[in-house]
Every structure is written in C-alpha cells, then in structure tokens.
Amino acid sequence: MNSLFSAAAIGPYSLKHRVVMAPLTRMRSSDGNVPNDLMAAYYAQRTTDGGLIVSEATPVSPRGYGYAKGR
Hints:
Blueprint: E1 8-10, E2 13-15, E3 20-21, H1 37-46, E4 52-53
Parallel strand pairs: 3-4
Antiparallel strand pairs: 1-2
C-alpha cells in the first residue's frame, strides 16, 4: 500500500505527495467567466509544494451553471 505522503506521477506531473484538491463549484470568476484576483488568491492559499489542485471549470453555456446565477 502506498503512503498518502509518498511521491506519485500523474501523466507528465510529478507530485511530492498524493493529497489532491478536487474541483469545486465556487463560481468566483468575473462576468464573462474571466478568472480574477480573487480566484488567484483562493488557490494560492490552498497550494502546496509538489501538490495538485484540479480547479473549477467554466460553464459552457448559461444553463451549465448547475444553479440559478444571481446576477
């Protein structure tokens, strides 16, 4: 059994541990689904040396948000 804190390779990426942050539906982007400083700060606060964060996706249509957008 591999240790959670042992190195791993995922495709071309070398990770120093196996703790991966899963994608979230934070919807922090600006109008037009443009990434912004808030998103950069959010992920920078959660990053680790040699870790992997699978970031949120951008909806491909107005109906793809999964909930009513209050804008």
